[in-house]
Design a protein that fits this description.
mainly alpha; 2 domains; 9 helices; flat
Length: about 240
């Protein structure tokens, strides 16, 4: 599966969270994964948020991401906890450092993928307007959110074009392959930025008036369940 397809939201999400819920949970998961230590409460909180991210990805049938987050984070936590006892010396330190990074960033990347694949731009902007976020902040966030899957699609298209011309690793110097891949992507990214800016002007994003949206926002049972789990993990980490 191409990266652009993995980051697209062409199909309706099976578990539709409100963008405000997704944003708050993303913040809580980042705080827990990046700052929690190795005591009992912190480890329990990290395991809970990892299980939450895995469940959300499984609900969207992103099975490859389920395996990456669940198996990768699980193994990393085990190595992080027992690595120093199994291996001694510099190798133990290196393995423990890599496991620590993987255990902390895999749930964040997995949840970020879920948010990107289930949140449309219109729903995202409507949610930010509901909480009175100024357009000066809303528009850059929306552009970044839209650019990520678009650039991923362009990168996949360039890679397929290179393969069709026989440009593979080993067929040409690595420096040339890097140039063939990056230069078209940079120029295409600049063009996409201009196209997004033109589309924003056509849709009247620069007009200082109250805007309407066809996106239906609201909190449902799934929002309360996900928020309850994320808040419970945070409280467990802080209290214990």
């Amino acid at each position: 599966m191409a990266l652009g397809d993995a980051l697209s939201y062409r199909n309706a999400p099976l578990v539709a969270l409100d963008p405000r819920t997704s944003g708050l949970v993303l913040i809580l998961v980042n705080v827990i994964c990046l700052t929690a230590g190795f005591d009992f409460g912190a480890m329990c909180a990290r395991i809970i948020v990892t299980a939450l991210v895995t469940a959300l990805l499984a609900a969207e049938k992103r099975w490859h991401w389920v395996m990456i987050v669940a198996v990768g984070t699980g193994l990393s936590l085990v190595i992080e906890a027992f690595g120093f006892q199994l291996i001694s010396g510099p190798v133990s330190l290196l393995i423990a450092m890599c496991a620590n990074l993987a255990a902390r960033f895999l749930p964040i990347v997995g949840l970020g993928t879920y948010v990107l694949t289930t949140t449309t731009i219109s729903a995202f902007m409507a949610a930010l307007r509901r909480i009175r976020v100024p357009m000066l902040i809303t528009i850059p966030f929306a552009v970044v959110l839209r650019m990520i899957p678009t650039v991923a699609n362009e990168s996949s298209a360039i890679a397929e074009s290179m393969r069709s011309r026989g440009l593979r690793l080993g067929s040409a110097p690595a420096r040339d392959l890097l140039e063939y891949r990056l230069v078209p992507l940079i120029f295409r990214t600049v063009d996409l930025g201009d196209e997004l800016a033109a589309a924003a002007l056509i849709r009247g994003l620069s007009v200082d008036q109250e805007r309407t949206s066809t996106s239906r926002l609201g909190f449902h049972v799934s929002d309360f369940v996900v928020l309850l789990i994320a808040v419970a993990a945070t409280v467990l980490w802080v209290v214990l």
